[in-house]
């Protein structure tokens, strides 16, 4: 079975507070982006155990989230050994959720291959054990994310009249853990800003001053080339530009 896991962008990303468990409560809108996809293939293999081959990753294949997805389901289900073949196109450390997408797609593929009988809610629960962004990719449609990002709600979003373009500054890899360590939660800031849903309800042309990614100030301070990409989008006529997730990718929204 073969699939093409897509990435996501974040429209707005509010870091609300740090939690006792060390994570942060956030609020964001996840939007699937199909212009950048990995290639994932899973087949039954004849060997004594699961295998994985990874092209374009640059890390230990056994630590890849797609392989962790196999091991997670094997905890509760008995199915034949599989071989996972993953070809990476979505870069790590870009805030696009490529690894999370691979894991979610692997869960869904295994569920279909071996008729495990898991519905979306059950698959999302497994996905949440692998990463905060993973559950979104089980549904793979515009959804608000709260809590760590795993509490999802459908959101009606119409961007048919708009074109989205993503750019990733060369040589910039932003660690999500490091980005969170430098961000200032909103509850620590004086005054208030427009709530996410209120900002999203505005016309796209008004998002520029209302829809904010709270990671930007700290990431821009360390990586000015990321801020430069955002500025370049506006110079080229984008009506809205933002960093996605904790960076380093930046996207621009243009009228078609």
TrEMBL record:
Keyword Kinase listed: yes
Top-level enzyme category: transferase
InterPro entries: GHMP_kinase_C_dom, GHMP_kinase_C_sf, GHMP_kinase_N_dom, IspE, Ribosomal_Su5_D2-typ_SF, Ribsml_uS5_D2-typ_fold_subgr
Chemical reaction(s) catalysed: 4-CDP-2-C-methyl-D-erythritol + ATP = 4-CDP-2-C-methyl-D-erythritol 2-phosphate + ADP + H(+)
HAMAP family the record matches: IspE
Function text: Catalyzes the phosphorylation of the position 2 hydroxy group of 4-diphosphocytidyl-2C-methyl-D-erythritol.
Protein name in the entry: 4-diphosphocytidyl-2-C-methyl-D-erythritol kinase
GN (gene name): ispE
């Amino acid at each position: 079975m073969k699939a093409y896991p897509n990435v996501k962008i974040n429209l707005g990303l509010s870091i609300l507070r740090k939690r006792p468990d060390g994570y942060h409560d956030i609020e964001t809108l996840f939007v699937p982006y199909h212009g950048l996809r990995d290639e994932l293939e899973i087949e039954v293999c004849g060997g004594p155990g699961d295998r994985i081959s990874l092209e374009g990753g640059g890390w230990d294949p056994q630590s890849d989230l797609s392989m962790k997805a196999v091991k997670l389901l094997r905890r509760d289900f008995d199915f034949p050994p599989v071989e996972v073949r993953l070809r990476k196109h979505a870069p790590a450390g870009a805030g696009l959720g490529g690894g999370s997408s691979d894991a979610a797609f692997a869960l869904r593929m295994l569920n279909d291959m071996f008729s495990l009988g898991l519905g979306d809610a059950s698959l999302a629960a497994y996905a949440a054990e692998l990463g905060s962004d993973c559950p979104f990719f089980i549904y793979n449609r515009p959804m608000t994310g709260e809590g760590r990002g795993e509490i999802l709600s459908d959101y009606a979003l119409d961007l048919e009249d708009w074109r989205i373009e993503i750019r990733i500054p060369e040589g910039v890899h932003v660690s999500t853990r490091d980005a969170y360590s430098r961000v200032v939660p909103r509850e620590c800031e004086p005054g208030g800003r427009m709530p996410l849903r209120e900002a999203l309800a505005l016309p796209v042309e008004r998002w520029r001053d209302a829809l904010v990614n709270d990671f930007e100030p700290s990431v821009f301070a360390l990586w000015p080339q990321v801020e430069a990409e955002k500025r370049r989008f506006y110079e080229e006529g984008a009506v809205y530009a933002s960093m996605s997730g904790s960076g380093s990718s930046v996207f621009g929204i243009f009228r078609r």
